[in-house]
Amino acid sequence: MRLAMSASSKSIICYSEEDTELRRGPWSIEEDDLLGNYIANHGEGRWNLLAIRAGLRRTGKSCRLRWLNYLKPDVKRGNLTSEEQLLIFELHSRWGNRWSKIAQQLPGRTDNEIKNYWRTRIQKQARYMKSETQRTTGFVEFFKALQMTRCLHKAQESSPSAMSLQDQEIHMPSNGGFHYSSFGIEATPETQITSQRGVNHLNQHEQNSDSEHNNGSSISNSESVNIQYMTQPLGCTTNQFQALDNYDFGICSYDGYNIDNSAYDMDSFNLAATVDAQNLELPVIGCQISETNSLNMESECSTRSNDELWQFMNI
DNA sequence: AATTTGCCCAACCGCAGTACG
DNA sequence: TCGTACTGCGGTTGGGCAAAT
């Protein structure tokens, strides 16, 4: 067996003992046509057989990948929307590097695409944030807001009928326009979120105690977040979602962001290394549910680093 | 203008799980 | 029950391209 690089197409051609060529590398238009036409006529499956019968000098594996990631009609091309990006962010926080599972929640997007997206854009931003961490607290609010969504998820899981957040908007601090509408969670007018005012402290020990991608919530529901279901609409009610007292806020334990260091260079998200956790006092976040059933979350204290923070959000 | 650097993304690889004879 | 082939998934690689130097 030997390998050679095709000069014209830069495809690697693999010669076996029988001198049957196995093409590798980029697919040509002709190959795409062959594969597409064959699947149109015969359907998917049995990829090795398909490759042979379609007259493709490719492995079944290669054919499958080409079909699923590129040729399949419902594959969506182009940049990810902001909603999709945020959804990826959220789902990754829940499931870690389960790309195929995440992709299932984004119709038309492939696991490969999401994986590439995460690897490039997210980690780039993470590196940026890490470099900024020493002089900004903006990321704290950001992660706090993400934790907020997790609170809501938890509440939804515990009482799914009463709490859903679809179509809601969570406005991140100050000048950030932050839409969580694609998170698949939905707010009802009956939803109220309250919390005692206090100061958040990061607790490294507790954070680290959360294993398995930290899927388990670190929230002590009884103490940190109370979610009540009211009988009257909350249209004009401003609910303080303040401080998430005693909340194992878990910047470091926020799923997926520091536990995947082995998979990618996720040091960027290992904020424990860059934050003086014990001395970190988090700003207060106010939580408001408007008449339009949208949940607005606002910071009650301004930060000078919003622009920096929202660079992250405005990927 | 030439070279370097970094980003993006398609494609490949290895492994684990599953189906099937 | 076992071995083999197939399938799917996550991780990695490398080429193309544009921006920076």
UniProtKB/TrEMBL annotation:
Residues 19-71, 72-126 form the HTH myb-type domain. Keywords: DNA-binding, Nucleus, Repeat, Transcription, Transcription regulation. GO terms for molecular function: DNA-binding transcription factor activity; sequence-specific DNA binding. It comes from Vigna angularis var. angularis. This is Uncharacterized protein. Pfam families: Myb_DNA-binding (PF00249). Residues 19-71, 72-122 form the Myb-like domain. PROSITE patterns: HTH_MYB, MYB_LIKE. Signal peptide: none annotated. CDD domains: SANT. GO terms for cellular component: nucleus. It is found in: Nucleus. It comes from the Eukaryota. Its main location: nucleus.
